[in-house]
Amino acid sequence: MAQCVQSVQEFIQDSFVPMVAVLCSEDADKVTRKNNLNFAELLRPFCRLTSEGHIRDPNNQVQVVKNLRICVNNVVTSPNTASAALSPTQCRLLNEVVLSCQPQESAVTNMITAGDYDLNFSATTPWFETYRENFLQSMPASDHEFLNHYLACLLVVSSTETVPVEQFLKLSQEQHRIQHSGEYTSPKWFIPNTLKYYVLLHDMSEGDEQRADMMYEDMKQRYGSQGCYLLKINTRTFSAEDDDQIPDPWSQYLHKNNLHNQDMLDEVAPTVNSAAVANNIRAPEVDCHYSAEKDGASNTLESHPLQLDTPSSSGSLHTLSAVSTDLKKGARDPESLAGGAGSHGACLTLNDHDHIRQFIQEFTFRGLLPHIEKNIRQLNDQLVSRKGLSRSLFTATKKWFGGGKVPEKGISEPRSTCGPLYPPEAPELQIRKMADLCFLVQHYELAYSCYHTAKKDFLSDQAMLYAAGALEMAAVSAFLQAGAPRPYPAHYMDTAIQTYRDVCKNMVLAERCALLSAEILKSQGKYSEAATLLIKMTSEDSDLRSALLLEQAAHCFINMRNPMVRKFAFHMILAGHRFSKAGQRRHALRCYCQAMQVYKERGWSLAEDHINFTIGRQSFTLRQPENAVTAFRQILTNDSRQTAAQQGAFLREYLYVYKSVIGGNEVSLPQLPLPCIHSSATRIYFGHERRLAEGEKQAATHVSLDQEYDQGMAAMWYHLEEQLVAAANRGTIPVNFQPTQCCLNSQTDNLHHPLAVMEEPIIVEVTFRNPLKVSLALSNLSLLWRFTADGVSPSKEKTTEELVITNEENLTLEMTQKDDVVTTEVILEFHMGPEEIKMARLRLLPHRTGQLNIVGVVYNLAAASSGEMASSTEGQQTLDLMVVRGRQDLKIRGPRLNQTKEDKMLVRHGPDQRLDPIITPPMPLMEVFFLQFPTALLCGEIRKAYVEFCNVSSVALCDLRVVSTHPEFFTFGSQATTPHTPLSPTSAENISAYKTLVTHPQPGSTAFEMLVSAEDFSQPSGVMEIPINCSTLQPGESTQLPLWLRGPDLEGVHEINFLFYYESTDKGNKISHRVLRHTVFICASRSLSVQATACRSSVPPHHSLDDKGSGGTLVFIDVENINTSETGVREFHIVQVSSSSQHWRLQKCINPAKDKDCKLISRERAKLCFRATRCKPYQGTSDAVEKYTFADLNLGNERIISSSTPCGDFFFRGCRTSESQRVDVASSRTASSIKSQSFVPTEDRASDITNIVKKCNELDLNIIIIWKAYVVDDNKQLILEGQLHVALETIGKEASSVTPREEAQEMMLLKFKSELPPPVTPPSAELSQLIKTNLHYPETYTHLFVQDSLCMVPVTLTLSNCSLAQVDVIIDLRHKSTSPESLEVHSSFTWVGQTQYKLQLKPQEVLCLTLRACFLQAGVYNLNTPRVFAKPAERGGMCETSQQTASPALIVINNA
Questions:
Q1: What's the pLDDT at 984?
Q2: Could you report the per-residue pLDDT of 1117-1164, keeping only the tens digit for each?
Q3: pLDDT of residue 452
Q4: Nearest-CA neighbor of 399 among 407, 391, 389?
């Protein structure tokens, strides 16, 4: 139980006090009425004695009486018979008492921590103490006990009476008639000889004091000095000035008198629903919203307190009718019941207060206590004389108990309900009367003995009501005995309660017994037993009593040594439910709120829903709509486990409450809880949505809200934009460069304010989630925004320039002004299904420059109508009323900061500015369309398409550029080499994309050559400037350009990204440029596979061609048709082979086949052989190293000019791409030529052995294979054309047009010890190619061996140094060949003359040695027997390496 102001001893003593009746004459009553009080009310604040009293018990022992209080009441007669229950009026007034006692805001609260619960609840329950006190005082008097019977009667007569003695006589006779006539059952009197105490009341303001003193002297002679008293009052004349100086001790006592003045109550009590009063339901509450009907599910007695209202319940708030429950003021105003308004005791001074206090003390000590003491002695004497010594009170033996003893704990059902009725003079009642007298004067030991004796008598007679009363008081007396000689007999109380409740059916007495026992158990720390006792006393006959007792049981659970938190909460819920049924809504709300502390966020979702729902309803009926809205929000925002029907009921309740809260308040829209908004998932798109394709036109994909954000793709676009910005700013990126972000989300960089453009829409995608299982209907959905115009400081107040828009219903003029600033799109209907996640795209169109802040969304919320409701007109009207307008703010938290130490230790978040764009002046807006753009190509296929650029804005654009992730995929051509082809795509059918010349090939003809600069085709940065006329596109203007495409070299699906760049002609804007994205997917199919190898020709160089040259090179080209038949390609034709190099060129085709045009069907292969020679040197040009020689060898009747667009473009772009894959991009940008660095001889490179080896074998020859493919498609033959590139870099090393797929690397073992790097040694295969050898001799030589047996033939050995360094050469002619080829011919010849040479050749030097071979007979001989060893001259310690020998050199010796 909760803490109480009184101790348990004080509580029990004040519960049972001597009762004193008052009879006043009319004049005396008038005297007291001057103070707005009757005589009993006048005495009430002074009825507690401040000094101790004394009595003597029958053994003549002095008994001290401490802190005694008496109860003084007016005599109110009632002819009705006493009942076992409180009257309806008493029940109603108890309800009023509890209702009027509410917790104060400054009341003491308990903070308790139990486990992980932190609870805050009221430490005291003054409403319970008030109820308990008034309940005990309002108990009807009963015949089985005498504690609330009147012991004395005060006869009060005014001193203004002519003959006061006659008035005293009349009053005495009236008292005697009331007590002994038998007409009245109430009031009841303790003993027949009631003490009469005569009081002469003197009004000091009117009467004669001397006369009053004389009368008092006469009274003392007549009634004795101990039986009368002169009370002087009203010594103060009433004045308004000093009204507040005298305290008013009566106000806190007056309402208690209401419960006893039933005659007054019956006059002023209004008509109350008898059914409600009988059950204490719906006691009048002025601030109730609806009346005491019991149709709601929560109000039915059969419903469980935790049962939620069903949606069909007629008790929902919006269906309840507001029934007025106004009562008369007198029914609730205690002052009116006390006799009118105004202050109390206005004519009394503090001395008068002392006079009254002295009168009470004089009456008690000289009249009441001696009277009680005398009666105790008389009763004791009567009992002793009647029973005899053997049955004396103090010497009782076992005979007293008579026959069998009835057990005290389990009383069996008697023959009648309460057993026999004793006459007033019965000795059993005399013992009970003596016990009650002893109890009232605090002689608890004697009282206990008497109660115990009486209890045995009653039990033996089966007088159960009397026995229960004796058991009850015996237990209380045992507890109150000083020094506690015996333990508290709790089983006495349990037996008494059971008897009262079950046998006697008297819940009033059972409740009193339970209240006393629970308080005693609480004082002993037995909270569990007290809680059990209180819970047992709950029943359906009184909701108020059950609610109060359940609340006290909850406090017992929380006050245990180990607090039982969940039991506390559960019983608080039960108490709140019963408070609600009793009409105590404020107390019900308080109980539910205290229990919510335990259930909140603990996973008890259904319990939380019930509590929140009840709190919402109670708050609403108590005119606390804000609390009601908050409670209903909790039900709707949590992840509910309720059924769909229940959630629908919750939603309708919420909408009704919400509607009543906002009412006509349109100043500010409150926040709505539904649907949930994922603020962090909000996406913002700046600009127009992508226009769909028009006819054959395919629009650029750009960016849209339908695309998923990809971090890797964003980085790729950022890199491309960096390239464009650097190209536009002369190779440097500005410091303030920020990448263009058209679509912002949670993963983008939102630290800076985004830039939006005036007159271009801003689309905000808001993600809504419906957490309920019922549909939601949103309407009139739009964005809330705040706009600050440029040039307006926030501190200045502006009316039209700086607007804060909330999209509420306002004047039409204001709406027009808002549309002038920003046009807001409204979505009229937005339906959300159960548990659906749905995105809404809301648009704003700014018309001015400035700062825009998107605050949130505003919308109308309603529960989606079901079929049944929609069919009902009345239901539809109800739904129309259930539409509420509100808002939700978009609050986006930025990314968590993790830079500094403080950031890491604390949780800090950076800004997120995606909802705060800056509106900038108009900018150009370009749209790009593609015509005849393919989706599938053969590898290397050349296709011509068209691109259209449209300026759809009001600002001219310029500086049009494009960059791509696959620059080798497309080209716009160069103006110098672009062929004149039709610009319109309709006239371009069946026209080759190449620039061609009709040429008839001739046998042995050499290639056509052309010298081209690389700068004509490509730009160093890879960014292409788009060649539009005048480099400017005016507003509304459009232009078309041809675009050549080349299929990727690798088969498969390729994602190719374009980024177009353009600027405004008006410089100085915050947005320096704009970009447009386009992504295409190309499916590449296999076409041809080309492998090429080169080897040195054994033919000696001609001195006329190149003195330094080392002769020609043979190029072998293998072509295979690897195309699959699914693509419909019938055959491929190799129409031309071209070369491009700075140093080499194809000279002529030496293929032995006569058929020049090479045809290949599927899986066929062909081999072509060409001779390549070095290019001629160019004189006098400083940039000769940047020139490329293109050589064309056509195999058909048409010659394709490979140095023009598109062939040359794709060659240079393909070379640049392959180079960038091998070399770092930054370093490759420093030189415009591709391989020019390799041929710059420097001292450093000459000394490097690795470079020496590489240079001697480098070829640097690029082969371009141009083909045509014949395709049959829908019975129509198409001709496709394309080109493949092969880069020959090294002699003897095969190159291919198809890049081999990289295989996964094998897993390497982890090495913990670093190994020494191997010595750098060039491979022997490359060192063996330092020197090229050639033998010059006559193929046939005729000699007459008859004349001369030795045939001497001169042979010239030509040595060519292929490297860029000096080489030491050793020639050994003594070598004998052992190869199989040389063994097949005669080997009987020998070299004569010098047979070993040691020479030194300068870089690229050619040296000729004249040798002589000696033959002994005719035959065929292989002259290729000299061994040549070489090594770089500067490598002294290196051994010479044997050089590669040419093919066998055969000579035929004929005998003449």
A1: 47
A2: 999 888 876 667 888 889 889 999 888 888 888 875 555 568 888 888
A3: 92
A4: 391
Asked if omega into 675 is within 30° of 0 (cis), the reply is yes
Distance between CA 732 and CA 734 in Å, rounded? 6
Strands 850-863 and 884-889 come out as: antiparallel
Question: Which comes out higher in pLDDT, residue 180 or 1020?
Answer: 180
State which amino acid sits at residue 591: C
Q: What sign has the CA pseudo-torsion 381, 386, 390, 393? A: negative
- The residue type of 1298 is V
pLDDT confidence of 1222, banded at 50, 70, 90?
Answer: low
User: Letter for the amino acid at 1023?
Assistant: V
The helix or strand, by DSSP H or E, that contains position 110, with its residue range, turns out to be strand 109-114
Query: Which residues touch 1418 (CB under 8 Å, ≥6 apart)?
Result: 1343, 1345, 1453, 1454, 1455
State the residue for tokens 């006959």: 541
Q: What does each C-alpha distance from 10 to 68, 480, 516 come to in angstroms? A: 10, 10, 12
How many Cα atoms sit within 13 Å of 1153 on the Cβ side? 11
Reference 437, options 65, 51, 47; nearest CA is 65
pTM score, whole prediction: 0.69
User: Reduced to 3 DSSP states, what percent helix, strand and coil does the chain have, rounded to the nearest 5?
Assistant: 30, 25, 40
Please give the Cα distance from 253 to 245 (Å, whole number).
20
Q: How many residues does the chain have?
A: 1456
Tokens encoding 127: 């409403």
- CB distance 535 to 549 below 8 Å: yes
Q: How far apart are CA 234 and CA 407, in angstroms?
A: 60
pLDDT tens digits along 1046-1087: 999 888 999 999 999 999 988 878 888 999 999 999 999 988
For the stretch 480-532, pLDDT in tens is 887 766 788 999 999 999 999 999 889 999 999 999 999 999 998 899 999 99
CA 1087, CA 1064: separation in Å to the nearest integer? Answer: 44
* Cα pseudo-dihedral 351, 355, 356, 361, rounded to 10: 130
Which pLDDT does position 604 carry in this prediction?
81
| Antiparallel, parallel or unpaired: β 1008-1013 and 1187-1194 | antiparallel
Q: What is the pLDDT of residue 801?
A: 42
- The backbone torsions φ and ψ at residue 1421, rounded to the nearest 5 degrees and listed phi first, read -125, 150
In this structure, the number of other CB atoms found within 10 A of the CB of residue 217 comes to 12
Q: What angle do CA 523, 529, 532 make, to 5 degrees?
A: 125
pLDDT surpasses 70 at 872: no
The pLDDT of residue 296 is above 50: no
- The position carrying tokens 């060659």 is 1211
d(CA 877, CA 883): 11
Greatest mean pLDDT among 97-106, 760-769, 1002-1011 lies in 760-769
Cα 1362 to the center of its chain, rounded Å? 75
- DSSP 8-state symbol, 1437: T
As a whole number of Å, the CA-based R_g of the chain is 59
Measured between alpha carbons, how far is 447 from 444 in angstroms, rounded to an integer? 5
Q: How far apart are CA 648 and CA 1045, in angstroms?
A: 61
The better pLDDT of the pair 147, 602 is held by 147
Q: What is the 3-state secondary structure (H, E, C) of 602-645?
A: CCCHHHHHHHHHHHHHHHHHCCCHHHHHHHHHHHHHCCCCCCHH
Q: Which two tokens stand for residue 579?
A: 């408070």
